[in-house]
Amino acid sequence: MTKMLEYKGYLGSVEYSDEDEVLHGRLEFIRDLVTYEGADAKGLKAAFRDAVDDYLALCEAERRTPDVPLKGSFNVRPGRDLHRRAMLLARRRGINLNTVVTDALRRYLEREDQPA
Q1: Number of domain units in the chain
Q2: At a CB cut-off of 8 Å and minimum separation 6, what does 45 contact?
Q3: Residue 75 domain-assigned?
Q4: DSSP state, 94?
Q5: How far is CA 75 from the centre of its chain?
Q6: Is residue 68 part of a domain?
Q7: pLDDT of residue 1
Q8: Residues 87 and 51 in one domain
Q9: pTM exceeds 0.85
């Protein structure tokens, strides 16, 4: 399944265990391990929301900042040639490397998100 649950900015996976005959998942894109399970779709959604609420409450009780999924930055290692080409393009256009990479990623995703 590729469906993800979303609540309060958190994303959760949806998996099925044939062995246990339950739906289960975990909060994705954070370092902390937070899991949940349910017997059916409605139960899984409720368990997911409870897991997010419990995670946020635990972080508050421990006076620590909860992980935030997909913060808006990531490292890219394109190799020496692509790095050089992108940097030279940025210099020619008078923009920074981050803008070149962000624009290229946006254009790629817009093209790929089109229905086949």
Answers
A1: 2
A2: 5, 38
A3: no
A4: T
A5: 14
A6: no
A7: 44
A8: no
A9: no
CA-CA distance, 23 to 40, in Å (whole number)? 7
Residue 98 to residue 86: CA distance in whole angstroms: 10
The first and second tokens of residue 95, run together, are: 């923009």
DSSP state of 9: T
The answer on 86 and 53 residing in a single domain is no
Count of Cβ atoms closer than 10 Å to residue 36 Cβ: 23
Is residue 52 located within the same domain as residue 87? Answer: no
**C-alpha angle 42-56-76 in degrees, rounded to nearest 5:** 95
**Domain housing 44:** 5-61
pLDDT (tens, 9 = 90+) of the chain, 116 residues, equals: 458 999 999 999 999 999 999 999 999 999 999 999 999 999 999 999 999 999 999 999 999 999 999 989 999 999 999 999 999 999 999 999 999 999 999 999 999 988 76
